[in-house]
Records
---
Amino acid sequence: MKAIIFSSANKPILPGTKGNVAQLNLNEIDKLKRSSITELECFDVLESAENDDILQDLMSKLRTGGVLKLKGTDARQVCKVFERGHIGETELTKLLVRNKLRAVSVADILEKVSTNKEMSILFAGVSGTGYLVEVKRN
């Protein structure tokens, strides 16, 4: 089963999805059973979840061979762009504060995933101020 989790009502536009795909809001993560998901795609979930252990919770939903795709705003990149004068305070606030509870960076995610021996990093990258990290359950 594939699941897509959105942090708010502002969902990105998605192409038509086929098959067994669940589209959930952030507050519906508990509906997913442990070790049941083959692909879990999350938009701004790490930044917006009240649960400090949200990354561990998401990884626990993956079955063996399952992939977790995390997409969000890299706080370190936003700060670099701000420091260089490419964005002002309004854009900084929009990127880091609006509808978010915490700042997240790719480095933070990689550090947390590396402590879980059942997981491996497939991809980690930053484009502009956005990050994409893909994690696989071994």
Note: Residues 75-83 form the longest helix (9 residues).
---
Amino acid sequence: MTRIILRVYQNPAEAEVFINIRRKSEGFNKQTAKVDTGAAITVLPIQLMSDVEYHLVHEQPIRIHQAGIAQQDFQAYEAKVTLFLEDTFGAETKPYEVTVWFASTREILLGVEDILDRAILHLDMPNQSDCIDLND
């Protein structure tokens, strides 16, 4: 089991982690992602499609209808990418193939499918001490 320490903020209340997405060329593209237990699938900005290696699940964009407070519709390309998580102390997970949605957004949301669904998430907001334990 790999432990990744999250960066925690109280106002606004959120937790972040680095994700490293395999590039089309060599290496990985490091980005900051917000941990979002309400996101079914990890969401990446569509601009990253020009840099990262991916395999489309559907050739055409799909329409996603969000429930909850936002109740928004948006289009996204559903794809598979390889990524690993990293914390500010240098701890890393092994690379995972995960499903993502490339959408028109500036924020990266670390979602449940293929990542958080294999993890134990520890949140201690008052002490700003949070981590993810991932089964390798």
Note: The chain has a mean pLDDT of 90.
